[in-house]
Amino acid sequence: MEGICIRGTGSYLPPKLATNEDFMKIVDTSDEWIVSRTGIKQRHIACEPVWQMGVKAAKAALEDARIPASELDLVLSTSVTSDFSTPGASCMIAQHIEAVNAVCIDINAACTGFVYALDMARMYLTSGEYRNVLIVSPEKLSRITDYTDRSTCVLFGDGAGAAVISASEEKKRFASYLRTDATGTKVLFARHVDKGNPFQEKQKANEFDGFEEHDNEYLYMNGKEVYKFATRVLPLAVEEACKKCGVAVEELKYIIPHQANIRIVKTACERLGVPMDKMYLNVERFGNTSSASIPICVDEVNRRGLLQRGDLVAVVGFGAGLTYGAAVFEW
Ligand code: UT7
Questions:
Q1: Which domains occur in the chain, in start order?
Q2: What mean pLDDT do residues 314-323 have?
Q3: 232-237: long-range contacts (C-beta < 8 A, 24 or more apart)?
Q4: For ligand 1, what atom is nearest to the CA of residue 23?
Q5: Is 101 a catalytic residue?
């Protein structure tokens, strides 16, 4: 076993669309504001559970990889909007694709989930223990979005991406750089609200450490703080992953960033000194789909035939936690 390869990719976008014009009917906003501040024009909204979207993306990835689900050793789900607290989305998806020999693990690394999962897949595969890993990233952000809050509701969309990562006899380059700045947990979160029980006195406000100000389960984001964080760590993570891989940023065919905001990507380009056309973007069509955003892009790049064997690609994510990281891999 010499390395790892992305053997197949898949994605699924639910059919229902919500355009900027649709949002103008529910909150005080405009197409001009949304496009100029974020680059988003529309997003998909799911009327189905997260695991079902995951199954569709996973089946597409398995078909592209040309392996049966029974050959999967590990299923990693990165969803932060799972249908159940337990069982994990990975178990639900494994059941429905019949991944009968797979161990199932859910990872919660927010929008960086796919990048974290890629690195976990690499570790399991290079240990020689496993041969095929499915990473599946289905997200239903509409579940935790407050549609009365114009500063967040226009940003998010639903969808799923997946990839089959396999052990390879070929020596392919791969390196990753992962970090978490856990001092930033309050900048971006969606909390559970205790339902109470007969044995417990009411929890004291200070035991929530400030999070109690948001006494609902909707996503809270301090947009400005996340923006500053993202523009700092996106170029940093790409540079560090390239350094670990022994390649120059200029050698990358594509950089696939987490699709949150086109302005973050433009600023990162300036800091990295690379042209915008090196960045693969689809935020205009899908909005921010959290951990699904990167694998949906990887699947588009693959299906559009934009990569040749040997091309180098970087994926880079940032999100709640605050997690961030990048991975560089050879196609
Ligand atoms: O995956 C998680 C990662 N998340 C992100 O990457 C998000 C990072 N943050 C951002 O992308 C930006 O901070 C936002 C796009 C969320 C906001 O852009 P901004 O330039 O930071 O806007 P702002 O929050 O400073 O708001 C500017 C103005 C405010 O009005 P006033 O106070 O200046 O009168 C807002 O109330 O824009 C107003 N505003 C809106 N106006 C029309 C906020 N949301 C909207 C809206 N439509 N949807």
A1: 3-168 (3.40.47.10), 174-185+217-330 (3.40.47.10)
A2: 98
A3: 233/179, 233/181, 233/318, 233/324, 234/264, 234/265, 234/268, 234/316, 234/318, 234/324, 235/268, 235/271, 235/272, 237/177, 237/179, 237/316, 237/318, 237/324, 237/325, 237/326
A4: 48
A5: no
